[in-house]
Amino acid sequence: MIQIIYHPVMKLFSSILLFTLFSSFIFSQDISVADYRGELNIKIELIDEKKIEKGVETLNEAGKIEREALSILKKMDDTEIAEGTSSDYKKMLKKFIEASLLYGEGHSLIYNVFNENCTKFQLEMKKMNHYASGLNKAKYYELKGERNLARATSIREFLLEADKPEWIQYKMHEALQLEKIAVRNKGRALQIYQDFPVEYNYGWENDVTPEELARFFKNPLIKLPPEDVFKRKPVEEREIPEGGEVIFRVQIAAHTVTLTDRYIRTFYTGQDSIIEVHEGKWFKYQIGSFDNYKSADSLRISCRVPRAFVVAYQEGRKLTIKEALAIIQEN
Length: 331
Known about the structure:
Layout: H1 8-23, H2 34-37, H3 46-74, H4 78-83, H5 87-128, H6 136-159, H7 165-195, H8 210-216, E1 247-255, H9 261-264, E2 275-279, E3 282-290, H10 293-302, E4 309-314, E5 317-319, H11 321-330
Antiparallel strand pairs: 1-3, 1-4, 2-3, 4-5
């Protein structure tokens, strides 16, 4: 048997390392509503706004209590931590558990707001017996969010019986991160539902790819929505322009099924003709046609369509804006 003898300096080092590890988990600043709604452009009722604010307040209260637990821990020596019987040690554990429960409660308040609004949309769709393929992305985010939350809940339940501060805090923040992702995923699902039947290029970080969706939904059941919203023929179908000139347009919508001019005019009220471009499985709706980015970007701003963005083409090939500007610069 090998016996390990700790030198006093090693004990001091272990205490410092332990506290540094704990402190790295703590939020450097208070959480805000923007942390959970920053990437979203959704409409919810005032009572739901208040619930989200309450959730954020609860999360910040949890952070405060966690810092109090760390303050108690910082004052303990290695022997007191190892024995784990002192009143301060028990007080510290109690605060960690209290913080964990509040983190869960805060995230639950925010998650439920998004979840309840998603459910409202689903009930409306069920009444009409309509389901579009474009909603697979929203369904994906909903299911992922539910799974993340279930894992986090399971972890927090185990923590109620734990008695080691380092393990409690580590697992508490593991649950915390899962809850944050769960809330994010439900929020993204709600965004897609509220934009239905239009689906935008949201530019979300770590957004699900079409390939990932195809694997997730191997053979999804698809029902077409009402014909007064979707149509069989394009609005004004045009091929992607050919020739050497780079052109810029403003894309205002896209979906996996075609949209009527009547529906598009409910969110775009400008005078420009609406151009429909079919790319792969997507129908993309664009306005304007310019030989320079500045003019297209001005139209993007003036068209007043949320999340509209500039696109570029050359010789039937779609370009990134960076590529298009580089070609123009060379010429």
